[in-house]
Amino acid sequence: MNRAEFFQGLDLELWDMNGRRLIQAAYELAKLGHAKQKRDDGDRYFNHPRDVARLMVKFSYASWKELCAALLHDGLEDTYIPDIVYIQTFGPDVYRWIEILSKSVPRIDPLTGCVTGYVKKTLEDYFKELMRSPKEVRAIKCCDRLHNLRTIGSRSAKKKREQIEETQKYILPLADATNRAIGEAIRFEITLIEAELLAKASQIV
User: Fold this and answer.
1) Which of 55, 52, 22 lies closest to 34 in space, CA to CA?
2) Is the pTM of this model over 0.90?
């Protein structure tokens, strides 16, 4: 999918010109920030936030803030784009949403403004904060996990089981409190992965 195809799949009538331009800027910034990164299956990393944004639209979350945050949800922890860029371009709300969605937040040098390291949140604290966050933020996290499950094929059986366990413990309660349709989609993907793992285990035996 290219840029034109992505935007052709959106209802541009939902936003004024400023909203459209901000979504276009978020698309470009995410593409730039993740430009040299690859996912486990070798796919370019940018395809992930782009597809999370598409899932948000599918599940009826389509404000410019929701789409910008979805496109940029991995930016703080996986790129070196300074936080001030997010704040000044997209506003404090979008920046705060991205910060909540980040498992690690950057430590900024006060003199140079450069990222000097990352502070990792504990898993419990991370999901507690998410559960208290606005529904839009919870929806982004659930769509993020849904896409990760749909593209988990190249990972080891151990990693797949760990992802299922984490999803069942943390993500499904989040989805059930946010959007049941996303929760059903996640449960369906878990069923497919479990069936695949069972089939492979029976072949080994």
Assistant:
1) 52
2) yes
